[in-house]
Amino acid sequence: MSDSSSAPSDSALFSLPKAELHLHIEGTLEPDLVFELAGRNGVSLPFASVDDLRSKYEFSDLQSFLDLYYATMDVLRTEDDFAELTRRYLAKAASQGVRHVELFFDPQAHTTRGVRLETVVDGIGAALDEAERDLDISSGIILSFLRDRPAEDAEATLMAGLSRSERIIAVGLDSAEVGNPPGLFEDVFARARDEGLRAVAHAGEEGPPEYIIEALDLLQVERIDHGIRAIEDPALVARLAAESIPLTVCPLSNVRLRAVPVLADHPILRLDAAGVAVTVNSDDPAYFGGYVGDNFVALRDALGLTADDAARFARTSITASFASDDRKTALLAELDAWRG
Ligand code: HPA
Ligand code: ZN
Q1: Relative to the alpha carbon of 205, which ligand is closest?
Q2: In whole angstroms, how far apart are CA 231 and each of 203, 226, 272, 273?
Q3: 4 occurs within a structural domain
Q4: What is the pLDDT along the chain (340 residues), one digit of tens a residue?
Q5: What is the whole-number distance in angstroms between the Cα of residue 289 and the centre of ligand 1?
Q6: What domain range is 102 assigned to?
Q7: In the chain, how many domains are there?
Q8: CATH number for 184
Q9: Three-class secondary structure of residue 141 per DSSP
Q10: pTM, entire model
Q11: Looking at the domain assignment, is residue 3 inside a domain?
């Protein structure tokens, strides 16, 4: 990199060493893989073709996306399917500068249709091991509870997850937000923390700023996923800054799910200017028009993100990760080399 205050090129933003902290592995399921796996597993699809499926990627809100997201993942059946899904994501991520990833999976979206949690974790884990060896990408898996299902289901899911505790670094909370406040999951998060797991939660994507406060106070999370509606509450913004609570922001997702009308209105730079630790992530890249590097490029185009901004957000992604101190030090050195 040379001039740190000028517009960074696409290739500079792609090569920027970064951690991705908000990525649903099921949200990396591209239409061509949907059809490939449907053929392999004998699943009949309610879509005529890859193009027909792609034409459905128009969303009016979070729920309209979730309906398609849960429908397409029905093609994921075997350990190999999950390994292949994860492999394809990692190849793409590597090409866009991802050096460490903490990915979510939604066990309940699989166990409820007869796919065991162990099948999912072992498949994802095999691909993560390959990436560690072949691509030098480090990683962790976050077990995410579906907040639109009862807390007792989350408890059972946690118990099942503990059979793969060596693989799972944290618990998360996702799915339909409004009407399903974090506080419903206080006990299961406490149990997870007692088991030594870290905690994060989606809050303030569609839900109000109060849900972010609940996630902090009742779930004791270390990061907030999305968190963009904090911008509506100046006292909360001040708290996030004072307590150094990172937000895993997903700009293209927010526009595609209409949490933000257009990218030019996105609050990420206002949150950053207020001292909040923000990171840039892709959420469900197969559905939202881009992987993490594409999200950086879109922010440059819509908001004038500079090389300094990009490097600051990448630095935060590394320091806010659950990677070891040694790994963080190594990645921060790569980031310094990028800055030149
Ligand atoms: N929000 C909530 N739940 C989700 C999302 C999201 O963006 N992606 C996958 N599950
Ligand atoms: Zn998400």
Answers
A1: 1
A2: 13, 11, 11, 11
A3: no
A4: 445 667 999 999 999 999 999 999 999 999 999 999 999 999 999 999 999 999 999 999 999 999 999 999 999 999 999 999 999 999 999 999 999 999 999 999 999 999 999 999 999 999 999 999 999 999 999 999 999 999 999 999 999 999 999 999 999 999 999 999 999 999 999 999 999 999 999 999 999 999 999 999 999 999 999 999 999 999 999 999 999 999 999 999 999 999 999 999 999 999 999 999 999 999 999 999 999 999 999 999 999 999 999 999 999 999 999 999 999 999 999 999 999 8
A5: 15
A6: 10-339
A7: 1
A8: 3.20.20.140
A9: strand
A10: 0.98
A11: no
